[in-house]
Amino acid sequence: MRKEAVVVVTEERLTQTRRIDAQRTWTRRLAISWVASIAALILFEPVPTDANAAEPAWAYVTAYTFLGALAAMAIGMRMQRRWAYGVSAGAGVLGMLLAYACLASGHHLGAWWMIEMVTFGALTALSITAAERTSS
């Protein structure tokens, strides 16, 4: 005689499953957005106006902090942790600071720094949206 397993589906379990599915979806969207954005910025980056422009010290600190935030974000997303969305938003803000550093140093003149600013601003907004949509 074969015994059948009985699965009890509660409202709490359904809510938990929906939250996990939403988190996976938003993590995937955010990861793809980060990879595509950084790849596009690298691919389309114009030749520097002044390749020897002196970078302010705060720009170096910001750049290394940005790289650390990207690594922490990747780890958090891989582990499916919600704190990764906060780190992602922080990395977006650091990216906006790096865009300003581009302007402040004269490294890239013209509209390039604005393109970077908008790109990282959009990633920050997407990160905040992901955190809001997966809360609770």
Plain-language structure description:
- The protein is mostly helical and 136 residues long.
- Helices cover 74% and strands 0% of the residues.
- The chain is built from 4 helices and no strands.
- It has helices spanning 11-44, 57-78, 83-105, 112-133.
- Helix 1 runs antiparallel to helix 4 (112-133), helix 2 (57-78) runs antiparallel to helix 3 and helix 3 (83-105) runs antiparallel to helix 4 (112-133).
- The mean pLDDT is 91.
Oligomer: single chain
Task: Report the β-strand fraction as a percent range.
Answer: under 5%
Order of helices and strands: HHHH
Class by helix and strand content? mainly alpha
Uncertain residue ranges: none
Distance, first to last CA = 43 Å
Instruction: Please provide the count of β strands.
Output: 0
What would you call the shape? elongated
> DSSP helix count?
4
> What helical percentage do the residues reach?
over 70%
Name some characteristics of this structure.
136 residues, mainly alpha, single chain, elongated
What is the topological layout?
Blueprint lengths: L10 H34 L12 H22 L4 H23 L6 H22 L3
Helix pairs in contact: 1-4, 2-3, 3-4
Summarize the structure.
This protein is 74% helix and 0% strand.
